[in-house]
Amino acid sequence: MFGERTWKIMTVSLLIYEDNDLLRESIGSLLTQNSQYRVCGSFRDVLHVDEQMAALKPDVVLMDIDMPGRSGIEAVSKIRQAGWTVPILMLTVFDDNQHVLDAIFAGASGYLLKKHISTKLPDAIEELRSGGAPMSPSVARMVIYSMHKKTTRINPYGLTARETDVLTTLSKGNSYKMIAGEYGISIDTVRTHIKNVYEKLQVHSQAEAVAKAINEKLI
Predict the structure, then answer these.
(1) In terms of CB atoms within 10 Å, which end of the chain has fewer, N or C?
(2) Domain 12-150 adopts which CATH fold?
(3) Does the predicted TM-score (pTM) go above 0.70?
């Protein structure tokens, strides 16, 4: 009829990985109370995560960390290596630095402690769907602090981003002309960057600079 509109609610499909059978079922029940959500798969391990992702094509993955045979962090890495960009929310009892950072560096999109599942899971899923990265304030502070430490550790000489780029390209055996062409700068600018790199690394040659950068994992 003219003027009549039909509204279609988009269903969000969720894939759950949790080795605690009771908790896994509880999460599924919690989510399916809302007609917007559909659990497309629910598993107690991630040993066949590749095949399950390909077959089920979820909109969101809920991933436990500590599971038999393979950890959730390893599973996240496999999902990302396979090219899947689906949001992945880690559900875990762990709130220590190493587990949090390992999960995030592996490609997790957010981090929710299991004690908050009943009150915060739906909001966390919606935040993921809108492009956010849900995590508790304490976890966010931990990540920021650790990233600051990591930046200081991997760049103790104060190299700028461009100097690091030039040094990386130099390590591949590229000439000054090739470096200039790659970054759209003049050869004189390349020379200036390399001079600054030598001074900051306290070296006197290209070979020394590259060797030091590789040995100290600066590039």
Answers:
(1) N
(2) Rossmann fold (3.40.50)
(3) no
